UniProtKB/TrEMBL annotation:
<feature type="domain" description="CAAX prenyl protease 2/Lysostaphin resistance protein A-like">
    <location>
        <begin position="173"/>
        <end position="271"/>
    </location>
</feature>
<feature type="transmembrane region" description="Helical">
    <location>
        <begin position="128"/>
        <end position="150"/>
    </location>
</feature>
<dbReference type="InterPro" id="IPR052710">
    <property type="entry name" value="CAAX_protease"/>
</dbReference>
<protein>
    <submittedName>
        <fullName>Membrane protein</fullName>
    </submittedName>
</protein>
<feature type="region of interest" description="Disordered">
    <location>
        <begin position="1"/>
        <end position="20"/>
    </location>
</feature>
<dbReference type="GO" id="GO:0080120">
    <property type="term" value="P:CAAX-box protein maturation"/>
</dbReference>
<feature type="compositionally biased region" description="Low complexity">
    <location>
        <begin position="1"/>
        <end position="13"/>
    </location>
</feature>
<dbReference type="InterPro" id="IPR003675">
    <property type="entry name" value="Rce1/LyrA-like_dom"/>
</dbReference>
<keyword id="KW-0812">Transmembrane</keyword>
<feature type="transmembrane region" description="Helical">
    <location>
        <begin position="259"/>
        <end position="281"/>
    </location>
</feature>
<feature type="transmembrane region" description="Helical">
    <location>
        <begin position="170"/>
        <end position="187"/>
    </location>
</feature>
<feature type="transmembrane region" description="Helical">
    <location>
        <begin position="235"/>
        <end position="252"/>
    </location>
</feature>
<feature type="transmembrane region" description="Helical">
    <location>
        <begin position="30"/>
        <end position="55"/>
    </location>
</feature>
<keyword id="KW-1133">Transmembrane helix</keyword>
<dbReference type="Pfam" id="PF02517">
    <property type="entry name" value="Rce1-like"/>
</dbReference>
<feature type="transmembrane region" description="Helical">
    <location>
        <begin position="86"/>
        <end position="107"/>
    </location>
</feature>
<dbReference type="GO" id="GO:0004175">
    <property type="term" value="F:endopeptidase activity"/>
</dbReference>
């Protein structure tokens, strides 16, 4: 991807409009936001998984009735039901993480009229989208460089979502594009940048907010104990995701609009998806 030689800057770094300070530590507020998000994500994901299990159980029972085999034994039911497919997993992720993001936004970090006006004004500046393209290109280049250096040291991690992406690409390519390029960037930026990072930014602690929100962003993408990757491979993935989160937080603060962070995230996911289509897992 070619980069513009210069990026026009037409205004100083935007800042959030003054907000009323709530009593208590902003770090404690961040912790409360995080706990609510984890609870909402797990609760919604569990509810969706149970709904899928009920639906799948009905399908298995009806198929057995049509074949005249009677109700399957309880011991055989789990094997007959199988695991949620790519479409079901994407829908569970959409409802779980997207629902948590919307809950936290409307309950804890809803934008004021002044913030919404500032965001619209920032989205109309050409410099906003110059920075967006530049940051997206920088994230891609940085991730590629980290990957190449790690490969020289014999570290080649496999992201835990790669099998899902490959299955979805083969079975539901249109929905995968909509999910990875449009939906996931929107709800992830709403949660990690607007809610998590934004709380500490509004409390004049943007660098701490960048650190904490980026760590949460990395951990939710590669959860310890759920991946067969070695510790060095996990550290590489955390470094990539954490750097990505920090870059998007910086862009949000630099431009003053969450749309820039969503745009950069969407560009990054589109590049990764195109690489998966044309070059495979490598």
């Amino acid at each position: 991807m070619s980069l513009p030689p210069t990026v026009p800057v037409t205004s100083p770094t935007p800042s959030l409009p003054p907000v009323a300070r709530r009593p208590g530590s902003p770090v404690a507020g961040f912790g409360i936001d995080l706990l609510i998000a984890i609870g909402a994500l797990l609760g919604l994901s569990l509810a969706c998984s149970l709904a899928w299990g009920v639906w799948r159980g009905i399908e298995v029972g009806m198929a057995a009735a049509r074949n005249g085999n009677g109700a399957p034994a309880a011991a055989d039911m789990a094997a007959l039901m199988g695991q949620p497919g790519a479409l079901a997993q994407m829908l569970i992720a959409l409802i779980g993480t997207g629902g948590a993001a919307l809950l936290l936004y409307f309950w804890r970090r809803r934008a004021t009229p002044g913030e919404r006006m500032q965001s619209r004004q920032a989205a109309l500046r050409a410099s906003t989208w110059g920075w967006t393209v530049l940051v997206a290109a920088g994230v891609f280049a940085g991730s590629s460089l980290i990957g190449m250096l790690a490969k020289q040291m014999g570290i080649e991690p496999v992201p835990t979502n790669l099998p899902l992406m490959e299955q979805a690409l083969a079975q539901y390519p249109a929905f995968l594009v909509a999910f990875a390029v449009f939906l996931a960037p929107a709800y992830e930026e709403l949660l990690f940048r607007r809610v998590f990072f934004g709380r500490l930014w509004a409390a004049d602690r943007p660098w701490l907010g960048m650190l904490l929100s980026s760590a949460a962003f990395a951990l939710v993408h590669e959860i310890p104990g759920t991946s067969p990757n070695t510790l060095p491979a996990m550290l590489q993935l955390w470094l990539i995701y954490g750097g990505m989160g920090a870059a998007f937080a910086w862009l949000y603060r630099r431009t003053g609009t969450l749309w820039a962070a969503i745009g950069a995230h969407a560009i990054n996911n589109a590049i990764a998806l195109a690489a998966l289509v044309f070059f495979g897992a490598q």
